[in-house]
Amino acid sequence: MTKISHFSPMQDSGHSPRCIAVIGYDGVQALDIVGPMEVFAMANLHLPERARPYKVLPASPAGGAIKSSSAGGLVFGETASLEQLPADLDTIILAGGSEDGLRQVIFQTDLLAWLHLRAGPTRRMASVCTGAFILAAGGFLDGRRATTHWNSCSLLKELRPQIEVEPDAIFVAEPPVFTSAGITAGIDLCLALVEADCGPKTALAVARQMVLFMRRPGGQSQFSTGLALQANATPRLRQLLSEIVDDPTGDLSGPALASRVGMTERTFSRSFRKETGTTPAQFVEAARLERAKALLESSDWPLARIAERSGFSSLDTLHRAFLKHLAITPGFYRARFGTGA
Predict the structure, then answer these.
(1) Which one, of 35, 4, 340, 17, lies nearest residue 206 by Cα?
(2) 110-113: long-range contacts at Cβ-Cβ below 8 A with a sequence spacing of 24 or more?
């Protein structure tokens, strides 16, 4: 079960607004900068002018214009240099980017040295997507739980075994360091930071203003069961996985699935485990659980109907699956993640 971390409330340091530096570089992912900046800017709009908590500063190692990795090479025309940033920074956010961009900013700039100087007086540091590699290179994640884009989690663990990488988390809070997964997960993290700083009403107002479907807590999965396992499967099995995820109801027993791909049950079971790292029964249960979670999040159907539409044989089976994998009941999940939460 993934963990949902708690945030400490903002402590009064006697000054306002709080300065947040969002740091990019050539090759940065544009949304990793724009997303967090918009969240904090929106928070300001939903509070009285005298109480506006944030001053958001786009920055880069040398300052000036930086070119993103986005299609067409979107350019951020003006950023502050590290030396120009105020001494009383409250939060430092490191954006993710291309491999070349990360290598250059880690090995050919003074960013890591600057981060070590600022780590003490700064209340918190955070990363979006592959920005976690910058924190990792500086040793800031050693001995901590952390996450990054799901496709880069194994590399992060390989490069820095001292990090407890959580590949299935949207974001991870290990105060004073926070990490988030791919791109839009940075928005989820920043919404959580705003909630800790300004309260849930402000965070919810920001989420609504940005037309977000919901504010996803850090314990939710980065990606679906189907996507996670299809990446390593052969085309023959990949089609079957896709069909199971699309429709997890009906007879999905071992013999039935083996027949659908023209294999003996023994060969199918062996091939399935080899290609996905799990058993057919475990995959089917995970697919049904995901369908149930989606229905709980988006509908007000009775639990018995959700169990049926998700492929579970009974409401009791649905309850057992939730308790087994999430350690909560379907009703509690709906209360926490549903549209009325």
Answers:
(1) 35
(2) 110/61, 110/82, 111/23, 111/25, 111/61, 111/82, 112/137, 112/138
According to DSSP, the residues that pair with 146 across neighbouring strands are: 165
Backbone angles phi, psi at 41, to 5 degrees: -65, -40
**Rounded distance, CA 104 to CA 185, Å?**
24
Question: Is there a contact between 248 and 288 (Cβ–Cβ < 8 Å)?
Answer: yes
Judge contact between 146 and 164, C-beta under 8 A. yes
Give the predicted TM-score (pTM) of the model: 0.66
Q: What is the pLDDT at residue 280? A: 93
∠ CA 265-267-269, rounded to 5°: 65
Confidence grade of residue 227 (pLDDT, cut at 50, 70, 90): very low
Structure tokens at 112: 């890591």
Over the range 239-266, which residues count as b (16 or more CB within 10 Å of their CB) and which as e?
Answer: ebbeebbeebeeebebeebbeeeebeee
Select from 314, 335, 333, 233 the least CA-distant residue to 2.
Answer: 333
Amino acid 5 reads S
Q: In this structure, what token pair is assigned to residue 284?
A: 């089917």
